[in-house]
Design a protein that fits this description.
The protein has one domain. Helices cover about 80% and strands about 0% of the residues. The chain has 8 helices and no strands.
């Protein structure tokens, strides 16, 4: 009975870890912006589609393809990048692609929040890359921290009520971070440091870019 319960919890923890992998977090942030009760939700569908395709291609499809190639050639052992060298390698490529996305967004007429958001993601990735050289913080938690900062910043910037978004991110974030601990992928200290670094850097970057 206990083993069945453990298997169920373990499968649920793995589900949260995969669905809310750091690779997908920027896309979720984009969807939060789209669904927010601000004028940003009324931007033309064609513009939304362009941004969505750009983010999906640059920050999900390409990184997954590169990770698959590295895995097939033995450069990385798992897609979770548990080894420090693997994390540095994948974070470096992610930083390049986030930077490309930010540059491309700056060249097209989109609202400033979209540009600031992806520039901030690139900055968070750079900081976590530097920290990874000497400390193994949770990238999942850093992503959740970034999402929380995005929602909080939008509430303050646009004076809107996004309670359901904030509660959703808090609940799902708690589930994701608990999953990382349950699967023994991170210690609580690595989870909390990832959360505060991701959230703190994102908040400062958004403030400086949009003030």
């Amino acid at each position: 009975m206990n083993s069945e319960r453990g298997d169920w919890i373990g499968n649920l923890a793995r589900f949260f870890s995969v669905v809310f992998h750091p690779l997908f977090i920027p896309l979720y942030g984009l969807l939060i912006i789209y669904s927010s009760p601000t004028l940003l939700s009324f931007i033309p569908f064609e513009m939304k589609r362009i941004i969505f395709v750009l983010v999906t291609a640059n920050n999900i499809i390409l990184p997954l393809s590169v990770a698959a190639i590295l895995y097939s050639r033995g450069a990385i052992k798992t897609f979770n990048a548990r080894d420090r060298n693997e994390r540095v390698l994948l974070l470096t490529f992610a930083l390049m692609m986030y930077s490309v996305t930010a540059v491309l967004l700056m060249k097209i007429p989109v609202p400033n929040l979209f540009k600031a958001y992806f520039i901030s993601i690139a900055i968070v990735t750079l900081i976590t890359l530097v920290i990874t050289a000497f400390y193994r913080l949770s990238l999942h938690a850093a992503g959740i921290g970034g999402l929380l900062s995005l929602v909080a910043f939008m509430i303050l910037l646009y004076n809107i009520s996004s309670t359901w978004q904030l509660i959703t991110v808090l609940l799902l974030g708690g589930a994701v971070m608990s999953s990382r601990i349950y699967l023994d992928d991170h210690k609580p200290s690595e989870i909390w440091s990832g959360l505060f670094i991701g959230g703190g850097v994102m908040s400062v970057a958004l403030y400086l870019l949009l003030k």
